Amino acid sequence: MIDNYTRTIVQVDSFPELMLSIKGATGPTGIGGTGPTGVTGNTGPSGATGYTGPPGGPTGPTGVIGPTGGSDAPTGATGPTGNTGPTGFSSTGPTGSTGPLGTGPTGAGATGPTGPTGNTGPLGTGPTGPTGVTGNTGPTGNTGPTGNTGPTGPTGDTGAGGTTGPTGAVAPTGPTGPTGNTGPTGPTGNTGPGQVSFVVACSDETTALSAGTSKVTFRMPYAFTVSAVRASLTTAQASGNIFTVDINEGGTTILSTKLTIDNTELTSTTAATPPVISDSSLADDASITVDIDQIGDGTAKGLKVTLIGTRT
Hints:
Elements: E1 195-201, E2 212-219, E3 224-232, E4 243-249, E5 252-253, E6 255-257, E7 259-261, E8 276-277, E9 281-282, E10 287-294, E11 304-311
Antiparallel strand pairs: 1-11, 2-10, 3-9, 3-11, 4-5, 4-7, 4-10, 6-8
């Protein structure tokens, strides 16, 4: 039977030397054992590829595989291969469906050694095509916006100061220029307020004085700035504690050091300790009181107090 049938469509007028190869029928397997495999011959040069015909031609049917010999019988010698038939000129038919592959049981005979592989034929390589032309370089893109300025770095340390140069020589004084003309006299200013004094009697002239508050009370006729205070007696005391007087505005003293009259003296202007004014601004209509804080032997008489200053 024919176990393999191959047909190839060629363009006869281009490749007349190509022919259809037909394998002859394979003979039945002999009973003897398989002989050794012969040496593989050199691979011949690759033939030119034939023209492929139009698709759709039928593929011929695969031949039926012959039966395999019994498993206990040795394999016979392989028969000679038949001559290759001439190449046909008909078109390739459509590919038929592949039939099932039958496989018989393997015989019990030993397989001979494999012969050496033949030399590989030269590999044909076509020439490399020319490199394509490099395209033109594209235009340069626009420059991106400038980034934000980074923060200012810390101020460096101040360098050491240079040495001060020597002082230059003093130049001689130039001549004095002529005296300018005297300007006109300005207008006379308004006359300022004059000094004002208040003398207030704190007792009669004959009764001996005693310590106590509010020996006299009166109200200021206008706002007044006190610049000095005095106290006087008609009759001085002879001995004892120093005679001491206080002046108050609205019940609060205006003196940080009180008025004193030394023994045998008639006025505070000769006292060893002069008074100190702590509140010099007396308000308009303020209530003023005079106190005798301390007396001596009780012989002093006729107390008067004087306020000296300016109207505000």
